[in-house]
Design goal:
This protein has 65 residues and is α+β, with helices and mostly antiparallel strands. The protein contains 2 helices and 4 strands. GO terms for molecular function: iron-sulfur cluster binding; metal ion binding.
């Protein structure tokens, strides 16, 4: 089954994915990327690979793999 794989270096902290995830599998982590943004993390146990995060993300952070 495909899961959402984030490239957190692309994340700019809009958190559209956090709000849009129907399974609440995406949350804001306490880690920051090289641009200084608090990045997201994906709970692979909850992720069902629906692709909503991929669709709403304006910065192409997600890949489904």
């Amino acid at each position: 089954m495909e899961k959402a794989k984030p490239n957190t270096q692309r994340c700019k902290g809009c958190y559209y994915c956090v709000k849009a995830c129907p399974k609440e599998a995406i949350s804001i982590s306490k880690e920051f990327n090289s641009k200084g943004y608090a990045v997201i993390k994906v709970d692979e146990e909850k992720c069902v690979g629906c692709g909503v995060c991929y669709t709403v993300c304006p910065d192409y952070v997600f890949e489904l793999a």
